[in-house]
Write a structure and sequence with these properties.
The complex is a heterotrimer, with one copy of chain A (257 residues) and two copies of chain B (185 residues).
Chain A lengths: L7 E4 L1 H4 L2 E4 L5 E4 L6 H11 L9 H17 L6 H18 L17 H27 L9 H4 L4 E2 L2 H26 L3 H13 L4 E2 H7 L3 H17 L2 E5 L6 E5 L1
Antiparallel strand pairs in A: 2-3, 5-7, 6-7
Helix pairs in contact in A: 2-5, 3-4, 8-10
Chain B lengths: L12 H14 L6 H8 L3 H17 L4 E6 L2 E6 L4 H8 L4 E4 L1 H13 L4 H8 L4 H9 L3 E6 L7 E5 L1 H6 L11 H8 L1
Antiparallel strand pairs in B: 1-2, 4-5
Helix pairs in contact in B: 1-3, 2-3, 5-7
Classes of the chains: A mainly alpha (257), B alpha+beta (185).
Chain lengths: 257, 185, 185
């Protein structure tokens, strides 16, 4: 969570204004950039073709659109699924346009242009595109003004003003942290009594005397400590191993007989 | 709100102007006439005319600063003419890049709020989740409850920071979306 | 220091005063005449007299602010006469601001309510008593009875003020982990 000082926005417009450069009738080239979405690309193509948005030459535009998609694919640019969906929609409209009108149907019955929905969507999109241009201009103007630097009284308040999403993000982080801790604990506790027996026995039978305190010190959790304790008792009971304490209050040594 | 100011001489206009100036200055975000009126136990109208006078003073003496209404309150900011010098002085300008996609999403949220992610998808024709996340991270939009429909999706709207960063007093200052329609053809 | 300002008309005194005003205003720290002179490529003496003039302007019009020299640099501050009002203002301003620790505790309470202090400790892995107090003081959380377990610890949950401050109608409007995941993917 960053501190308040309103960030100054800047926009990456140079790189996003894409350009299709026509090389020949069948070859198009793309100058780097991305379209904000399939509608954006469509609008661009319609303008390139100088077509009327209310009477889109659907076959031609579909071809152009598909060319673009292929080009992007050949350039290994990952295409948003939405671009593919739009391609499918265009092909569908195109095929509907090719269908002869049902001669039986009443001429009075309203003929539904298969392009209508798309046109409405494009018009709506165009409005918002202009609105975002307006926002861009506003923010550019706004970037010429600066607010006051920090003053002492701000410092008293080294706090963040949080939104609901900040609460969620923080909670998510805590849960992740918590999960990690629990997993670490589980990992540690995964050592079973059998493992513990094996480990301690191996050390004793390697020949050296083993200081009991050393074994206990190595244990990383209360659980392991308990396991080690039980294991030692078990070993002393079942194996030829004795516990030796050379001095009162001295260290206890495990030794094979 | 606790109000501890004791009985005092009524403040003169000049004094009120000066106090408003001080409070607008110390506030770390735009402050409304209403809040100033509450804290100072003055009539909102008195505060408003004090601010007006303050504004005029800064204009008159061609100060490097101005008093402006933004994001529902009053704030000092530098005059645009001097942006080059200010930038030069601050040297590093934190820059948060907003992509064309995010900007478009922001426009949809601004004009259709409160709005859900599926509704944005419909208008933009593109999945907009990552733009939404960017805008949330930049605090330009905020969650505004849930829509009472299948799945109760989250509703989003613009924030105060949005107003501030785009230099708007309030949302009504946005031109109507229908105005853009006229330009389409 | 990069100096990119191109050959320009020399600045008038008034302009220089205004620019110094703007730069002192945006600076996070007191700023010296020397630095201003460097950035603006002006003589230090010119800057010094501009600041002097600026200072006089603020004095003359009995502004709520003053330009003062501190630690070898210039800075704006509020006039001492108004410290009472400034203090009052800073104190009474409703603030949704929280330290990160309090925010974490609030998050746990919001998503796990009703919850006890030991349970919060268990989830956060950090003692949270002082955050609990802060949140109670800010009225963002409230006690919700006791848990019928050893020691009968207090249960805490979010308050009505919490809903209001975060713009929620009810708790079901809190975004869920799934809402977030939807945005991330």
């Amino acid at each position: 969570m960053e501190q308040q000082q309103p960030e100054q926005l800047s926009f990456d417009f140079e790189s996003v204004q894409p350009h299709i450069v026509r090389e020949s009738r069948d070859q198009i080239n793309l100058e780097l950039g991305e379209f904000a979405g399939p509608l954006d690309l469509l609008l661009y193509l319609i303008k390139q073709e100088q077509a009327n948005i209310f009477d889109i030459p659907i076959a031609r535009i579909t071809d152009e659109y598909l060319k673009y998609i292929r080009l992007m694919k050949s350039m290994d640019v990952s295409l948003a699924a939405d671009f593919i969906v739009m391609a499918a929609t265009l092909i569908e409209i195109k095929s509907k346009m090719l269908l002869p009108r049902d001669p039986v149907s009443d001429a009075e019955e309203e003929f539904e242009d298969p392009r209508e929905e798309l046109v409405n969507q494009l018009l709506e999109h165009e409005k918002f595109k202009r609105a975002s241009e307006m926002l861009y201009e506003r923010s550019t103007v706004e970037q010429a003004t600066f607010s006051r630097g920090k003053i002492e009284t701000d410092e008293n308040n080294l706090e963040v003003s949080a939104t609901v999403f900040d609460i969620l993000k923080v909670f998510r982080k805590i849960m992740e942290r918590h999960k990690e801790e629990v997993q670490m604990e589980i990992a540690r506790e995964e050592m079973s009594l059998a493992d513990m027996l094996k480990n301690i026995k191996a050390r004793i039978f390697s020949g050296k005397a083993v200081n009991l305190l050393d074994i206990f010190k190595e244990m990383k959790s209360k659980n392991e400590l308990v396991l080690a304790f039980i294991a030692v008792l078990e070993i002393v009971r079942t194996e030829s191993v004795i516990l030796v304490q050379e001095k009162v209050f001295g260290d206890i040594i495990l030794r094979k007989i | 709100m606790e109000l501890e100011i004791q009985e005092k001489q009524p403040r003169s206009i000049g004094e009120l102007v000066a106090i408003c100036e001080a409070l607008i200055f110390v506030s770390d975000e735009p402050v409304s006439a209403k809040i100033l009126a509450e804290v100072l136990q003055e009539e909102k109208e008195a505060i408003e005319s004090a601010i007006e006078e303050l504004q005029a003073e800064y204009e008159q003496r061609e100060s490097g600063l101005r008093v402006r209404e933004i994001g529902g309150g009053w704030q000092f900011s530098t005059r645009t003419e001097f942006h080059e010098e200010v930038r030069q002085f601050l040297k590093t300008r934190p820059s948060a890049k907003l992509s064309l996609a995010s900007l478009e999403t922001l426009a949809v949220v601004a004009y259709r709020q409160p709005v859900t992610v599926p509704e944005i998808l419909e208008i933009r024709g593109v999945q907009s989740a990552s733009s939404i996340k960017t805008l949330l991270d930049k605090r330009l939009i905020v969650a505004k409850g849930r829509k009472e429909t299948v799945g109760r999706p989250m509703l989003y709207g613009t924030s105060k920071d949005f107003l501030i960063q785009f230099g708007l007093k309030d949302l009504s200052e946005l031109p109507s979306i229908e105005d853009f329609e006229d330009l389409v053809n």
